[in-house]
Write a structure and sequence with these properties.
It contains seven helices and 15 strands. With 397 residues, it is an alpha/beta fold. The chain folds into two domains: 328 residues, von Willebrand factor, type A domain (Rossmann fold); 42 residues, no CATH class. The strands form four sheets. Strands 5-15-14-13-6-7-12 form a seven-stranded mixed sheet, with helices on both faces. Strands 8-9-10-11 form a four-stranded mixed sheet, with no helix packed on it. It has a two-stranded parallel sheet with strand order 1-2. Strand 3 and strand 4 form a beta hairpin. The longest helix is centred in the N-terminal third of the chain and has 21 residues. The radius of gyration is 20 Å and the shape is globular.
Amino acid sequence: MLLQHRALAPALSLLVATATPLACGAPSDASGSETTPTTADATTAGTSASAGATEGATGTDTSATGTETGASATVATSSPGTKFDVGDEPTGTSTTSAASGCQKVDFLFVIDSSGSMSDEQDNVIASFPGFIDTITQSLAAQDFHIMVVSTDNGEDSGLSNMCNGDVCNCTPAPACCASKCKGSVMTCSGFACDDLPVGPCDYVYGGGRVYNAVGDDCGLAGGLRYMQSSQPDVEATFECVGDVGTYGSGKEKPMLAASEAISAAMVAPGACNEGFLRDDAILVLTFITDEEDDENDNGSPGGPADWYSALVARKGGDASAIVTLGLVGDSNLPNGLCPADVDPQMDGAVPAPRLQSFVSMFEYGVIGSVCASDYTPFFVDAVSVIDFACDSFEPPE
């Protein structure tokens, strides 16, 4: 398959690969006007697929589509511009060329830590090695930041706990221990209650994770809450921080966590995520959740247009400096992989039209099914989208 530059493809279409699904589209305006994602089967490149309903940024219904694959992905698009059919190396372009427009990439992963996410977390962790291997082999950019945050603030968590005398065990540790180390309790999950290794950054939305769910220190270098390219054994470290556990809050707020993680207050000198977000890097936001994000149902404040504006503002108003990868519920999309009318606490996922709409606003926005049995094709093919965004990026002077 061929990745085409917008100058070569004035008619926008959404291409979904049957075996290795991925593509990306063009932005809506930042005001949050309606977007209309479209799809086409990659094998027929341009044939329209039937539309399903998604909720637009303004609260009205827009159309979106999906296609059933082993690792389902669609690209949300909204206005004439670029056509991408992602897979093979772009004609006339070397993915290993040093002439890319960016040399740095900041990866932010927002992973749902609620009780229904065990399989999905395992899937993300299992797919990461292929993703990072393709990144390092294909992109000219080799300067990375990689941070993982959960969908809560660490306070309404630790629902799994067992205490016996002066000893307690809970997850996610050690954050959950703050509420357990009371009275006669002396130790919690192996930590001394009078010397818990926790602080304010463990109880805020968007704080980078440094422990796995059972309290193992993931060994992030330099005292940072994210990995750098020089991190020893990046894959094993991601496996550790990506294990956010399934005893987090059921009031998931993925977009709040994302916007807070890169907020000016959080990346400032001395702050929790100091130095994570760089002006001269593109931002790749990946979020994985089996719930919708709706402020009327204990979700993030605002809506798709607000989330879009918040992220774009943090990149100096340059939406093309952001790649969004969303693994969400897709039962509202034609041929979506998630079963309809299924309790996500048991299996499947809640359809997420608001999150789908958010992704559709970005020029480089890709939607995949959180119910896919394997995320590896999704992440490996996403490298082509990231590579194109990187090639087109013009760092601020």
